[in-house]
Design a protein that fits this description.
CATH topology of the largest domain in chain A: Nitrile Hydratase, Chain A
Chains: A alpha/beta (197), B mainly beta (96), C mainly alpha (111)
Helix content of chain C: 55-70%
CATH superfamily of one domain in chain C: Nitrile hydratase, beta subunit
Strand order of the largest sheet of chain A: 1-4
Distance between the termini of chain C: 57 Å
Largest interface: A-C, 51 and 57 residues
CATH superfamily of the largest domain in chain A: Nitrile hydratase alpha /Thiocyanate hydrolase gamma
Order of helices and strands of chain A: HHHHHEEHHHHEEHH
Structural class of chain C: mainly alpha
Number of strands of chain A: 4
CATH class of one domain in chain C: Mainly Alpha
Number of helices of chain C: 5
Oligomer: heterotrimer
Number of domains of chain A: 2
Helix content of chain A: 40-55%
Largest sheet of chain A: 2 strands, parallel
CATH class of the largest domain in chain A: Alpha Beta
CATH topology of one domain in chain C: Cyclin A, domain 1
Strand content of chain A: 5-15%
Radius of gyration of chain C: 17 Å
Radius of gyration of chain A: 20 Å
Order of helices and strands of chain C: HHHHH
Strand content of chain C: under 5%
Chain lengths: 197, 96, 111
Amino acid sequence: MTMRSEDSVLDHYQAMELAVSALLIDKGYFSAADMEAEIDAMAKRTPDIGAAVVAQAWTDPDFKARLLADGTAACESIGLDMGPTRLMVVESTETVHNVIVCTLCSCFPRMLMGIPPDWYKSVNYRSRVVREPRMVLKEFGTEPSADVEVRVHDNTADMRYLVLPRRPASTDGMSREELAKLVTRDSMIGVKIVEAP
Amino acid sequence: MARFVPGDNVTVRRAFPPGHVRTPYYIRGKSGHIAQVLDSFANPEELAFGRDGLPKRPLYRVRFAQSRVWSDYSGSAGDTIDVELYEHWLESEENT
Amino acid sequence: MANAGRMHHDMGGRDAGPVDRGGHSHPEWEKRVDALMMLLSNSKRRVIGVDELRRGIEELGAENYSKMTYYERWVSSITHNLLEKGIISSDELGRKMAEVEDTARAAGDRG
């Protein structure tokens, strides 16, 4: 919705943000530099971070065990800033395919993947993936066989979910860095699988 | 202390209060089992109004068979859905 | 009574169409709204909690919720929460909004 008054170059909500931020800076809640630093920090949070975690779990059984037991502690142990995030890592296997959603808003493991894609926040994804997950997965080109358990995780409360996707076959000789390049954001949400190169 | 342990059968309360509630509408009145006891967390229904949300409430991952959540579920019989639910939304299945 | 008690944001299981996987834009002003919320919610400040943000979004009502973009909902909720807490007043907000609009217009005229 745009509420651009005819002679303004800012819309209503942009003006609201600028005014609110300016007032809070005037009142000493934070500084302009704090805001710049926050924007920069968010820009550095990308799915590459999650992909590195996945690749480490694929190549380091001890790390994988710790990651599945306590995602937050395991990520902090490799130097990641998790902020307030309580991370739950769910492993997809031969028998279980995991997919995550937040039907109530748009909860997402932002510390490991940045801001969620628009479709993740959309009415259509949030409405349908809990009720007809296989049809939604199919739209993404993912078709788990009928004997695989599709397990949806509705991110409703305090934990944030990351899917540990299956490592593709025929990647035995690959380095951790090469493996990380195969891991996509969508595979860590669970709407896609990781493809072999 | 958490009242439920993994494996316990539970039913989500059917309640429709106004306010800020983190129990999805579609899961109210449905039965599943405790998959995992998580930590205890401040109650978001109180936090939403600027209060402290104490005492903290135990939070669970509750697993539901999709075929018991949706009468017209079209996927596989073994498909499941996990929802995080606070203890005050759960009842023992035999009590309901 | 099928949907009595169901709030508009609580949409799991509703009928809906295909997922549009296209476009993902995140303009500068949205990054500022995101940063604003992170600054206000972090453990150093604790001015607005995430559940207060969500409540403010839910209280926008179904019609506004569906019309507004994601970050329009965020900035509206943040602002309402700050007004409720008495951290800012409508009067100073109105004056400051006029000021930033004037500044932007002047910059636009120059450009």
